[in-house]
Amino acid sequence: MKTKNFFRAVSLLSCILFLLPSCARTQRYSETYLDYFDTVTSFTVCGVSKKEADAANYTLQDELERYHQLFDIYNEYDGIANLKDINDNAGIAPVCVDSELIELLEYCVSVHDMTSGYVNIAMGSVLMLWHTCREEARSAPDSARIPDEALLREAAAHTNISSINIDKNKNEVYISDKHTSIDVGAVGKGYAAQRIAEKLKACGYKDFILNIGGNVIASGSKSNDNPWKVGIENPSDTTKTLCSLSLTDKVLVSSGSYQRYYTVDGKRYHHIIDPFTLMPQNTYLSVSVVCDDSALADAMSTALFNMPYSVGYELVSNTDGLEAMWVTQSGECLYSENFQSYITD
Amino acid sequence: MKKKDIILLLLIIAAALIVTAVLALTGAFTGGDKVVVTVDGEVYKEFPLNENVEYKIETENGGYNLLVIKDGAAYVTEASCPDKVCVNAGAAQEIKPVVCAPNKVVITIEKD
């Protein structure tokens, strides 16, 4: 009798051994999108069936398209009042928009105050001058130039955030200064990522990672309660990582001068423009931020990139749940109080 | 009966071990990180991440991207596109593919 039980046990064990290889791998589904926010979006979801993953991708794509169109300042879309419509009507008339756009703009105003103006969505006219030069350089690299300083100064005279009037009750936005325009580049992607992640969670997806152009949201865990592991690029050699972070229900955003730039007379000009000097700031190579909200992380990484270290450090210390890492021009890494607790090997 | 039981058991265990060993060796079971190249959404080629290789991805529009896999990192060192976003993108990560929009090339890392 005893030996019979023993055999049963061994048979069971053998069966388990057989099954092991198949369940050791948690199924993950990944998708990449190229058509939104002028950047790359990638999405990986775990612990769901193929059908559920497909449904998540449909939701994601719909939402990406919706936010992309709402936040677009270069193109118009049928049946949608977006930021371009608001800009085009500056000094002319209020525009009635989706309540989601009202919420974004209100958030941007609060971030402006929180960062002492280092994040300013009303500096669209300044950013447009840089944008034009960048676009020109793309088609004719040899005649690349930077914006004329007098023009930059002139544009900077029309970047007052209080020119943006938001009427929440009527869902209307009116820019009172006709030379002022909105550009949510510093916040838009992070804000959209946050909202989309919340929607996916509400649909029942728990374990996923969403990356909209460097705005990474690590929801839940990768598999069997293993955290997501995300590498921070070495700005001096982007084929290498500086360090890896272990993230569970956290967001990570990096702002870097190496990501998007153009060259004039051998000198690089990147895309993060300081609202006060009106020039690309070259104090750091990159700034990375970890916290719970991707919109905040996006805004903060931009603000910190332009702030002197002491000012930035204090801002991070005074903001709950926010940690940051600065990589200076010489490649030195500086950390906020608890940033290193996320670093893993 | 007992003797046959034992033989059967040994066979099952042996078979299980062989299957496990084969999966492990082919990289399907442990750490078989892959570099997957897609062109216009279709899988074009796959490489193991742990083997150093240089490969020229040639696309239908006559363009190319030179993929380098070295020391566990996969990146593009040369490309026909005008903006060189793919070259500046650095190494592909699981959550951050290297993309060349003009050539519709996407290079992703698939981890186990």
Describe this structure in words.
The complex is a heterodimer of chains A (345) and B (112). Chain A has 345 residues and is of the alpha+beta class. Chain A has a domain at 80-183: ApbE-like superfamily (T-fold, Orthogonal Bundle). Helices cover 37% and strands 26% of the residues of chain A. Chain A contains 9 helices and 16 strands. In chain A, strands 1-2-6-7-10-13-14-15 form an 8-stranded antiparallel beta sheet, with helices on one face. In chain A, strands 3-5-4 form a 3-stranded antiparallel beta sheet. In chain A, strands 8-9-16 form a 3-stranded antiparallel beta sheet, with no helix packed on it. In chain A, a hairpin with a 2-residue loop joins strand 8 (228-234) and strand 9. In chain A, helix 2 packs antiparallel against helix 7 (188-202) and helix 7 (188-202) packs antiparallel against helix 8. The termini of chain B are far apart. Chain B has 2 domains: 1-30; 34-110, N-utilization substance G protein NusG, insert domain (mini-chromosome maintenance (MCM) complex, domain 2, Sandwich), CATH 2.60.320.10. Chain B is an alpha+beta fold. Chain B is built from 2 helices and 7 strands; from the N terminus they run αβββββαββ. The longest helix of chain B is centred in the first third of the chain and has 25 residues, at 2-26. In chain B, the strands form 2 sheets. Chain B has a 4-stranded antiparallel beta sheet, with no helix packed on it. The interface between A and B is medium-sized, with 34 and 33 residues.
